[in-house]
Amino acid sequence: MMLRWWRAVLERLRVPVSDRVVVPTLVVALTLLAWLALGGASPEANRGVTVANALADDAPSLTLREADTCRPAVMSDQLPGPECGWRKVPLAKMWPSRRNGQPQYDVWYRLRFHLDTVPVRGLGAYMVAFNRTGRLFVNGHYAHEFGAMTAPLPLNWNRSQYAFIPAALLRAGDNELQIQQRAYDWDQAWLAPVQLGPEARMVDLWRERVFWQNELVRILGVSAATVGLFMLGVWLGRRSQAMYFWFGCVTLLWSVISLDYFVAFPLLPARQWERCMEAAHVLRAVMMFMFTLRYCGKRWPLAELAAWAYLVLGAAAMFSQVLPSYAIDLWYLGTLLFSFVYFIMLVRHGLRNGLVEGAMLAVAGATQLGLSVYDLALYSSNTWTDRVYLTHFSVPLFVGVMGFILMRRFVESLNAYERLAAVLEQRISEKAAELERNYEQLVEARRNQALTTERGRIMSEMHDGIGSQLTLALSLVRRMDREANPGAHPQDGQVATVLRESIEDLQLIIDSLEPVENDLLTVLGTLRYRLQDRLGKSGIELQWNVVDLPPLPMLTPHSVLSILRIVQEAFANCLKHSGATRIAVTTGLSGEPGQGEMAHIAVTDNGQGIEGNRVGRGLENMRRRAATLGGSLQINSGPAGTEVLLVFPTLRPAAGDVSFPLKG
Amino acid sequence: MPDILEIPQVAPTRILVVDDDDAFRESVCAAIARDDGMALAEQANSVAAARQAIESGDFDVALIDLGLPDGNGIELIREISRTRPDADVMVVTVFGDEAHVLASIEAGATGYLLKRSLNDTLGETVRELRAGGSPISPVIARQLLHRFKRATPEAPQPPATVVDDGGLSEREREVLLFIAKGFTVGEIANMLHLSAHTVATHVKHIYRKLAVHSRTEAVFEAGRMGLL
After folding, report:
1. In terms of C-beta density within 10 A (0-12 exposed, 13-18 middle, 19 or more buried), how is residue B39 classed?
2. Which residue of chain A is at minimal alpha-carbon distance from B185?
3. What ipTM was predicted for this assembly?
4. What is the pTM of this model?
5. C-alpha–C-alpha distance, residues A598 and A308, integer Å
6. Cβ neighbours of B181 in A, within 8 Å
7. Domains along the sequence of chain A with CATH
8. Residues in chain A within 8 Å Cβ distance of B116
9. Are B100 and B91 in contact (CB under 8 A)?
């Protein structure tokens, strides 16, 4: 049900199939991120209850929300006396920077609390926010050092602290925590409310907070760096696509900025590092602006120049300290303007590429913009709370969305290329097949041409050579016969008969080579045409009882010659021996077309029939020839006449099928 | 009442004999001499001699052997059909094979004779020819059908050998088909309810059409090659 509804929504929105998996994944990821961000945003709400419960059970639990504090004029490891100007303040407390010619300054806090009994296993002290470095004393005794107390001081920016207080340092009744905090003169020093409780509980709280605010940021930073390097790699392969370059830079810069959250000792001197990080934020905004322009396929030279000038001039001013710090803050705040501009541009362009892309960009962009505003507000509020900075949690979302969109473009262009390649390949193979066909036709045509030429040459030789000479010989012999017996009936003598039969046999061979286009009737008709005169002179009537037959594939010159010889022999028998007055030629087909179809030719006369072995020799030849056709010959002879029936398959016999019985 | 059709038979048909074989020529001349309906117009044993005879002599039928010592008889056939359209040309062949006969018909011949049976059939064939009938064998009929077959997309034919169907009438096509199937002129006449003479005349018309077509095609070819 849910699934169907979801599918309907996708259809309505015309979401491409490839996005249907991505969109739910994105929704899940967004929800997860939101949950993480919210979980990180208000850790105290949950934790306060947990801690309270835990303390109610078996251990003293206290959250110290106020302290006496002072900033001595001279740094000393001794708790300052009353001359320092102690005053009671609520926690969290943030000290402004102090420039009195010394590179660092100390501040001191005194937090009082009451214990009815001393906890046997001591106490854990958890400071949600405590920057730079310092030491913890309990009732005047040293308990813990948070980091090196000489330059370079550890960064510890936005890092919670935990310290263990042994039972030996505690006493029943009133106790006092004394906290010494050290910072650079340009630094601000802050302390959030301090929680005291059972060690295990406090360690858990501290670890959880460190995970969300420091470790996770480190993981995200490394991931962002990987994505950024990958994008730069893509750009190296495709220099024309500048957006990959800018996106890679932005992502790498994110991971650099995230160093602030987990590196205690940066590579640069603390002050320079601080400035570089501020400049990095502005640089990121400018690069993001550049990326957005390229992503939208735009080039705004003036706007681009202005953005870079904004960065360079502002950074120069910051490093040369010509501007007051509030001006630098304004410069920093100006990046919000960039963010807003590129956010609008991204969403507009994304929507042009489809609802999904637009929606994803809108969510990612709005999240980032919102969290940036929140963080900026937090940063510049000067009313320190124990809230966490959130912008970093929008980074994976934004990198994910942009990475997805860029990858999709990349994959789509790959797919398009593959489709193109497939089309090309198909065209090439079509062309190749066409060429192949043409070539085969050409080869076939050449072969036919060669056959025709050769046939023509042989025919010409037969015609002008042996044929002419035989004809001449016949004509000479006849003339000699006539001169020897003038006035006799013009009957061919023995030599003339042999010559005439030779010519007729040659005629038969030539006829078998003629183009009959697989028409059996043309084959038989040719024979009839040749015999017409002789039949007419013998006074024999020929009945042409033929039915039209489809083209027979088996009619090659070889088989045509066999048929011609068989039928000619049948005619010759009728003419010579039977005394018939009528001969009928009948044709027909039997059997199924395709396999097993047979054609038959019957030559029937009304003569006296064949007696004994008179035509034995001729009959044997006819049978042999019928066998070469893959067929059979049947002779039914009686007093009323003779039927010679030739039956043969219509398909061309396979090479192995033809048997040539030895002449017996 | 005098029959107009018999008028040509009153005067003997004058025959021009072209053959390089002396014995054969003599035997043909003897056969002509034996027949009252025929008279020898001229005899020649080469292309050159035949050309002279064609220019000067008067003849009704030319008997032409294709293999002459100084050239091909086809040239003579072309010349006669161009200069003497009223005359008939008969080709003398040994086998009456399609290659020789069709080439001759294309050049303008309207009949052919087998050399070996020429003595027996000459008179009859000449009379038929003068009366408007041409001999035709099934193979030649089939080849004529093939030549006149309209080129179809499924079976494209080289255009040089194909004449548009417009060249053949339906009746002519029918006659050719029957001949290709082995039927005689008499049988076809019966089946189509025509006279045998009409059927034979159809054949001669078809021969003429093929010759005309071949000439047109030759002109077309020559024009394309820039000769005209």
Report:
1. middle
2. A529
3. 0.82
4. 0.52
5. 94
6. 519, 521-522, 525, 546, 548
7. 2-43+215-403 (no CATH), 60-197 (2.60.120.260), 516-664 (3.30.565.10)
8. 471, 474-475, 500, 503
9. yes
